[in-house]
Amino acid sequence: MYRSFLAALALLLSTSVYSQKISVSIFNELSLNTILITPTQGSYKLITGNGEIQLRTDQIIYLSKVGDSILVRDASFNLGTWSRVSIVGQTENDAIRIKPILPSFPARLYDDNLSFYIEFNRVMAINIVDREKYIASVVETEAGPNKAKEFYKAQSLIARTFALAHLDKHKGEGFNLCDGTHCEAYKGRIGLDKNIYTSTLATAGQVIVDTTMQFITAAFHSNCGGFTANSQDVWLTPKAYLVSVEDKHCRSSRNANWEVRIPLGKWKKFLQTKGVDTTAITDVKLYDFKTEVRPLYYPIANQKIPMIEIRSHFSLRSAFFSVVAVKNAIRIVGRGYGHGVGLCQEGAMQMASRGWKYDKIINYYYKNVKIVNINEVTPMEQDINIDIEKKDSTSVPLIHSNK
Q1: Residues 114 and 86 sit within 8 Å (Cβ to Cβ)
Q2: How many domains does the chain have?
Q3: Potential cystine with 66: which of 71, 141, 173, 379 (Cβ 3.0-4.6 Å)?
Q4: Per-residue pLDDT averaged across 174-199, rounded?
Q5: Can you tell me the distance from the alpha carbon of 245 to that of 227, in angstroms, rounded to the nearest whole number?
């Protein structure tokens, strides 16, 4: 009977090609040693090498690294030590709270199922979550609450396109994606704004592809300052659909304008590292540079310095700025926030609030693309294995094929 249950569990946790489940390494940047888990909603079973244990709502369970195994205990007793344990929801609306203890980190709430094992000298915590719940959470993290539904629909398309295009990003580690910005920022179950989830469901299964039916590079940023950037001007690689467009919608938004001052000495020192002879610049006004469109270079003393290099060196909000010399400082008058490639979030928010539909927003920022169902995209094969091991080393392998 237990083997039958494991077989059912294997199907439940399966994350096959473009399936409705995605496996995500959570708290991925922490070296987890001990965590506390508490079911808060629905019904959960703890699956171990010896069988299954029904968990109660609000029951406290500790998982700790002990060598290459996980010690499981509740508030009163040690329940056992196993190489892997899984926590599987029994309903359509299960939620569980996870609190890292060592190291300490704020608790987060997660949907659906979890698997724990030891790898890389730490506890690996894998959330096997419904794809659309994952997408909605990413949208909430990357866009925030209380926005127009059509904006959330556009952002969900971007998040889903990225996720499904990168399901093999952690193939060698046994899961699809991590919860850091290395993949997509994911902080568990969405909060109070249910419009995010309903908007995500309204576009369920939809992705953005180019003219060859391949996933696009779904780049986005906070604010473009009035003009988005060509992909090759930021990342060297040209993409036919990532070309500069004028965007009047974002120009009065929160991140549209900014300003910083840099001591003239620091500015000169930087220019000198780029081969500029600052001793030959006798008039401070020769440092001035004014632009109304997104520039590629800062011209100075017959040289051209890439704006992205200046941005990187001084940690500026964008590479779209003018330069004004004032006394013993350089005044940087900037526009926008982020790399400037692809969708401008604050521009898209304004479009949505003015009645633009999500497909029109997508096609404004990404040129010659199509919105299609994921089933129309031909996947590349890969294998992701998640084993639910028994104490006698027999196992039920979960073989998945993912893009």
Answers
A1: yes
A2: 2
A3: 71
A4: 90
A5: 6
Q: How far apart are CA 45 and CA 311, in angstroms?
A: 51
**Distance in angstroms (rounded) separating the CA atoms of residues 323 and 281:** 15
Which pLDDT score, from 0 to 100, does residue 165 have? 93
User: Token pair 């990168």 is at which residue?
Assistant: 166
Pairing of strands 220-221, 343-344: parallel
End-to-end CA distance of the chain: 34
Cis amide bond preceding 103, omega within 30: yes
* pLDDT (average), residues 294-301: 96
The closest alpha carbon to 88, from 29, 145, 10, 140, belongs to 10
Query: Do 109 and 94 meet the contact criterion of CB atoms below 8 Å apart?
Result: no
- C-beta of residue 74 within 8 angstroms of C-beta of residue 55: no
Q: Give me Rg for the CA atoms of the chain.
A: 25
What is the C-alpha separation between 213 and 380, in angstroms, rounded? 13
Q: With the C-alpha atoms ordered 18, 21, 27, 31, is the resulting torsion angle positive or negative?
A: negative
- CA–CA separation, 312 and 234 (whole Å): 11
Domain that holds residue 331: 257-335
Q: CA 264, CA 284: separation in Å to the nearest integer?
A: 9
CB-CB contact of 161 with 374 (8 Å): no
Q: Which long-range contacts (CB under 8 A, 24 or more apart) does 101-105 make?
A: 101/33, 101/34, 101/35, 101/36, 101/62, 102/32, 102/33, 102/34, 102/64, 103/30, 103/31, 103/32, 103/33, 105/27, 105/30
- CB-CB neighbours of 102 under 10 Å: 14
Does residue 222 contact residue 255 with C-beta atoms inside 8 Å? yes
Which residue, 291, 315, 335, sits at the end of a domain?
335
pTM of the complete model: 0.87
Indicate whether 317 belongs to any domain: yes
Average pLDDT, the chain: 89
Give the dihedral of Cα atoms 13, 17, 21, 25; nearest 10 deg. Answer: 80
CATH for 106: 2.60.200
Can you give the pLDDT at residue 393? 26
**254, pLDDT greater than 80:** yes
Is residue 88 assigned to a domain?
yes
